[in-house]
Design brief:
By secondary structure, the chain is of the alpha+beta class. It contains 4 helices and 4 strands. It has a 4-stranded antiparallel β-sheet. The N and C termini lie far apart (47 Å).
């Protein structure tokens, strides 16, 4: 009897969880489906001052209305693995509602000023843009 009751409870929990997921899944549409991730390699990779100047410059981009969220990061001290590239110095991760919002950002005077004021700090930039599927 104990085993049957346990099986019934486990089945009921699994069924309820599956029902909740199937009901909730269609409503989980992202409000920021465009992701813009940029990696910067500094000209002076050992310079904390240059890194901090670039970070401060990136923070000014938060004033651009079409950016819904902006994250700025430096390489984490995670486990070294073949698939992890931590050769970059600073990254920015932005979220936009759509392609039009990202286009506004590209041409925005604050973004253009950031490039003018900070481009001397980096040696290389790689951009990854992605849309939710």
């Amino acid at each position: 009897m104990k085993n049957t009751r346990r099986n019934f409870i486990a089945s009921s929990v699994a069924l309820a969880a599956g029902t909740a997921v199937s009901i909730a899944a269609p409503t989980l549409k992202s409000k920021t489906p465009l992701v813009h991730h940029v990696f910067f390699w500094l000209k002076n990779p050992g310079s904390i001052a240059d890194r901090d100047r670039l970070v401060e410059g990136l923070k000014t981009l938060r004033k651009i209305e079409s950016i819904k969220e902006l994250r700025i990061g430096i390489p984490a001290s995670t486990e070294k693995r073949d698939v992890v590239d931590n050769s970059w110095g600073v990254s920015e991760l932005m979220f936009f509602e759509d392609l039009a919002g990202q286009a506004i950002y590209q041409d925005h005077p604050i973004h253009q000023k950031f490039i003018k004021d900070c481009s001397h700090l980096w040696d290389k930039v790689i951009v990854y843009d992605a849309m939710d599927v």
